[in-house]
Amino acid sequence: MSCRMLVLLLPLIATLGLLPIAAGAQPAPGAPPAVGVVRAQRQQITQTDEFIGRIQAVNRVALMARVTGFLEKRLFTEGTEVKKDALLYQIEQPPFQAQVDANKANVDQLAAQHRNAQISLDRAQDLAAKSAGPQANVDSALAAERALAAQIEGAQAQLKTAQINLDYTEIYAPIDGRITSTALTEGNVVSPTSGTLATIVSQDPMYVVFSIAQRTGLDLRNRYAAKGGFAAVVIKLRLPDGRIYGSEGNLDYVSPTVAENTDTLTLRGTIPNPVLPGMQAGQVGSRELGDGEFVTVLLEGVQPIEVLGIPRAAILSDQQGDYVYVIDAQGKAQIRRIQLGQSTPTTAVVTSGLSEGELVISEGLQRVRPGEAVSAGPASPAPAVSPADAQGGGAQRPPSTTGSATSGGSQP
């Protein structure tokens, strides 16, 4: 054999030599695939429903001018928190003070005339009692006295109105809260038609308002009515950055009517919004929640409930719905159609289709075929993660006998 032929045959000889080794690396034909299984068992979970909500101030006041005049002073810093009864705006006062003084002088003048009329009336009555004067004089004096008394009452009313208008030249904060920027600055003429000068929104506590579908509302009512209604749930918030807000709130209002265009109910909760540690009220970012902010509302049951749970990794889905593989008495994998309820990041709650104690395949599902035998072994435990990651919703929680069941309920 020539050297050229030997060179051409060497790759073929090497390939044939490796074939027995590669064949020996494959599993024996007909060996059942290895899978990890868990036993369906009952466990305690806390039911949680998620909705999209918006933070809303409990009190909101639009400041408006009630008299017409030049705006002389603005006595607040825009964007800061102001206290109730703090002076915010001052409108020029001299014209209104002059009107008060003029009305006061008019009242004094009429009071002097009324005193003279009373003296004339007393004299006429004395003369009439002694038959020294006619009764007509008494009647005239009485009419004059009554007329002046009525004029005094009218003048006092005008004085009171002038004093009210003078008081309106100073605009005070009616509530504690954070104030917006001013719409008009010093030197401008303001009047009742000028619109809102600034708005004050209260800061602590805050409302969180969210909408739920009518069907979801019925489910919540049926779930919690027997457990105390509003008192059976607490409100937690997930902030836009994924963090869980540190304070819990209470549900305090459910709309008595259903929105016709969306078939939804409006719910409202109250939640604290204290000043953050190390900061002062009014500083930028001194409070966690802001009016108008979007948040995720977690409506959580106070008392845990017992459910039938399996790992979420065991759940498969197709066009017919959710299903799992269970192992029958002959050690074969069988499809079992199930209905799911609320679930935690690691646990799927099964409401129907599965019995307690059944073995469910949670690992090696890609190797399972319906009706074929499998080699079952205990499934690996889920990896442990920090509570912060679990609350943020971005990681799996470690297995626990008590979880938090979550269902989506975003606003339509």
CATH level-1 class of the largest domain:
Mainly Beta
Tell me the fraction of residues in β-strands, as a range. 25-35%
Helix-strand pattern, N to C?
HEEEEEEHHEEEEEHEEEEEEEEEEEEHE
Give the class from helix and strand content and strand pairing: alpha+beta
Low-confidence sequence ranges: 12-27, 385-404, 408-412
Q: What radius of gyration results from the CA coordinates?
A: 41 Å
Oligomeric state of this protein: single chain
DSSP summary, beta strand count = 24
| Number of alpha- plus pi-helical segments | 5
- State the separation between the terminal residues, measured CA to CA: 82 Å
The portion of residues assigned to helices is 25-40%
Largest sheet: 10 strands, mixed
At the third CATH level, what is the topology name of the largest domain? conserved putative lor/sdh protein from methanococcus maripaludis s2 fold
CATH architecture of the largest domain: Beta Barrel
What is the mean pLDDT?
A: 81
How many separate structural domains? 4
**Judging from the principal axes of the Cα atoms, what is the shape?**
elongated
Concise structural overview:
With 412 residues, the protein is an alpha+beta fold. Helix content is 26%, strand content 32%.
Keywords for this entry:
single chain; 412 residues; alpha+beta; Elongation Factor Tu (Ef-tu), domain 3; 4-stranded antiparallel beta sheet; 5 helices; 24 strands; elongated; disordered C terminus
Written description of the protein model:
The chain is an alpha+beta fold and 412 residues long. The protein folds into four domains: 34-45 and 305-407, conserved putative lor/sdh protein from methanococcus maripaludis s2 fold, CATH 2.40.420; 51-58 and 202-301, Elongation Factor Tu (Ef-tu), domain 3 (Beta Barrel); 72-89 and 172-201, Beta Barrel (OB fold (Dihydrolipoamide Acetyltransferase, E2P)), CATH 2.40.50.100; 93-168. The chain is 26% helix and 32% strand. It contains five helices and 24 strands. The strands form five sheets. Strands 2, 11, 12, 13, 14, 15, 16, 20, 21 and 24 form a ten-stranded mixed beta sheet that branches. β18 and β19 (333-337) form a beta hairpin. α2 (94-129) runs antiparallel to α3 (135-167). It is elongated. The two termini are 82 Å apart. Residues 12-27, 385-404 and 408-412 have low confidence and may be disordered.
